[in-house]
Amino acid sequence: MEPVIHVFATLLIHVEFIFGNLSNGLIVLSNFWDWVVKRKLSTIDKILLTLAISRITLIWEMYACFKIVYGSSSFIFGMKLQILYFAWILSSHFSLWFATALSIFYLLRIANCSWKIFLYLKWRLKQVIVGMLLASLVFLPGILMQRTLEERPYQYGGNTSEDSMETDFAKFTELILFNMTIFSVIPFSLALISFLLLIFSLWKHLQKMQLSSRGHGDPSTKAHRNALRIMVSFLLLYTSYFLSLLISWIAQKHHSKLVDIIGIITELMYPSVHSFILILGNSKLKQTSLWILSHLKCRLKGENILTPSGKPIN
Transmembrane region positions (predicted)? Predict the structure, then answer.
């Protein structure tokens, strides 16, 4: 790869890394501030908090893999590679399922439907979310008990050769792709079904609003569209993340560093950009995030700090 392209790509990855940690970190800090003030968190705040934490972990795992491939990778071998594999799979697994839980939350909380099964689930929203997340744990044994890397944890010891490390990392990426393909079908399908049902609900709602003077300014219509934007961004970004894993795997098979680094850049977009969209789509989260940034700015300038309500902090 050309040095100029490599430098530009490396800079872009570092920008995505910082942006992803910042956007997800703001979600964590915003919900932590609400918990300190109110001593409790709503269901959606809990989902957003756990989602942001899982994405921060995922971002660090992908960044670590980037450093392995294009940095000092001599320290990664055997058991350390296996731990990295497990950490990436876990963070990716929970990041996807928490995002799916958010999609289902928007569907049950916003959509209007007279189906009995829908009303039953709507009345038991918390139990549905908790039950789905607990059910996702069923897939973990199948993900973690892959034996391809388990057979090689101490084979090379401290004298790991360059070829053996490349072979291990190729198998590592292959396992990531396999598990993401098999075990992401169900949560991604649930998110897609939630999206389609929300579109159906919005379409029915707009039909009812055609004879109303409120029209497109109706709060329910705005809530539908906001949820749809968030779900569309999730589906598109996760699809790009999944395809980027495929691109990286093919690139490593053909030893194409340029295509591989493009895949890494695309992978980092999913946990970074979607969290930023979540902040923009949540008025309370947006307000608290802006206050945190202004708080940090005031700290740096030594000015008085204001609460989110505008009152100074002594």
Answer: 12-35, 47-70, 82-108, 128-145, 175-203, 230-252, 258-280
For the chain, the maximum distance between any two Cα atoms, rounded to a whole number of angstroms, is: 76
> What is the reported pTM?
0.82
Q: Which domain holds residue 153?
A: 3-281
Residue 183 sits in a domain of what CATH number? 1.20.1070.10
According to DSSP, the residues that pair with 305 across neighbouring strands are 313
Specify if 288 maps to a domain: no
- Contact between 101 and 189 under an 8 Å Cβ cutoff? The reply is no
- By CB atoms closer than 10 A (0-12, 13-18, 19+), residue 30 is buried
State how many domains the chain has. 1
- Token readout for 55 is 């994405």
pLDDT in tens, 259-311: 778 888 888 999 999 999 999 888 888 887 788 778 777 777 666 555 555 55
Three-state SS at 29: helix
Do 121 and 128 contact (CB within 8 A), yes or no? yes
